[in-house]
Each structure stands twice: as C-alpha cells, then as structure tokens.
C-alpha cells in the first residue's frame, strides 16, 4: 500500500494509541464534536445534573452504511436521542465509540462524523467522551458505532405500564419508511418517486408536547418490529386491549408497493423517526394539533384506542373471551384480526 493510499484509508496504526490515532481523533472527532467537556481529555467526563436522569445505550451496525435519508452516523445520534426523548428526558450528553475496519475510507468517516455533528445540534446535545478501535480487514463490516446517552427527565411517569382504558393511540407520521428504504438500498431498486428513511431527531417534537402540557401516558419510537411490536408490548405491559383501525394508519404508496412486492406488512417494518404516543381521550386533539405543526408530523393520526377488558373482535377471528394483552386490527371491510408481534428477522441490520 503506497503512502497516498495510506492517507486515504484507516490503518491498524490508527487504533494503536500513537501519533496516527491521536491525529485521527483530533482532526475528525474532536473537530466535529468540540465542546469544553470533551476537550478536557480525561478518562471519564464529569457531568452535572439536577433531578432524575434517563440513561440509554445502543449499537449501530446498519447495512448499507449510507442510505436514502441518512447514514450510520445520523442514525446513531438520532436513535439514542430518541430513546431518551421517549422517556420525557431532555437529551444532554452522549458517548460515542467506533469500531472501524482497516481500509475504511477516511473521507467516508469524515462524512459520517459531520452527519453526527449536524444531528447533535438539533437537540443541543454534546458528545463528551468516546473510544476508537481499529480491527484488521475482514473483522468488521466497515464501521460500527455505539452511543450511550443521558438526559434530564422533564416529564416523569411516562411508561409502557401506564396505558388506561379510553387512551387514544397516535402515530406521528407514515410508518415503515426506514425498513423500506434499507430494503430498497440492498436490492438496488429504483422507484419513480423518491423513498427515503424517516430517520430523524424526535426531541424537538417531544419538547413541544411537553411544553403544551399534554398528559402523556406512554411513548415509544417504533424501531425494530415497527408499530406491531410497540403496540403488543404496551398491551401486555399494561394488561389492556388496544384496538386499531387499519385505514387510519398512514402508509405511503412507496412502502405499500414494496410490501406487496416482498410480502411484508407495513406494521412490521422498522422506523427511525416515527413514534407512537398514548394520551387520554381529552388530550388527543391537543396532542395531534401540536404534532401536526412540527417537522414531518403533518400526517400524524389517531389510529386507535385502549379499550376495557373483554372486548370482542369479529367472531370469525377471535374467541369471545378476555382480550387483555392483545392488539386487534379492524380492517376497512368490517372484519378484525389480531395484530401479532413480527416473527423472525424480516430485515437484519436495519439499525
């Protein structure tokens, strides 16, 4: 490998703790994530909090690394920020650890880190510590990222166990975009209309819901397993029945087309900038109004309701007994069926 090539790709020496590693960290990571805490260069960041905090961690191995609507860097920051936001916590500090394969292009790394920096600004969040490891070629698929995050809880008591009979279920936008975009990228499909991932930072929207004093019982971003997984988790955790009107769930034509082509259900496809919220019936219109005023939530919709015990679905599709812990999907044709948790792995490495 000549010297020109050496300057353009990651080498094992970039993970060796010497001059090359120091230059990589300073020129790329410190330059993009610059803040006073990070610049201290201590073994651990010293943080200051007042009150309860939320803490989360996630690892990102998405393939391909670049996709319509985002990349692994944007996904890592948005995904971790969103996990905090779903607990009513204001995202404040993130860690960032990267595992880079020998031979990975430095320009691609710069692009990914710049994407992360842009996403951080959307929630005024800082990366305050991190780690870099380089592994030999063939030991990783380009780049893996782990991010952990902490945030100050502004809206306490948001929980999967807090759903009550009468709560309205609201989805923030059309579903299944991220899973469909990843599928399209892997299969090399070209569509007449541009389909992109919904990958987005949700804190600005959640912050507005909190500021409007919306009574939020539960909130969750519908990532792996999609809408189906979230609703089933809620139904079981709160021991309630959730009834959903299929025609009320927003799905784009592009996602519908891909699902028909591959035999998938849009309810099962992953999202990375779409969330589900459960609020009391008398708060539903206010929540919907707030959500529809902010980015990418124009298609926010009330899709269903939490119902009391012993709700009976269509007699041909469900037994007439307790429906606690179940999700019932009502079709436009007047029938009903259980909306089950997805089986198996539809699309591995979607995040």
From TrEMBL:
UniProt superkingdom: Bacteria
InterPro entries tied to this protein: HypE, PurM-like_C_dom, PurM-like_C_sf, PurM-like_N, PurM-like_N_sf
Every PurM-like C-terminal domain range: 164-310
GO biological process, one term: protein maturation
Annotated ranges, domain PurM-like N-terminal: 42-153
Sequence similarity: Belongs to the HypE family.
Name by which UniProt lists this protein: Hydrogenase expression/formation protein HypE
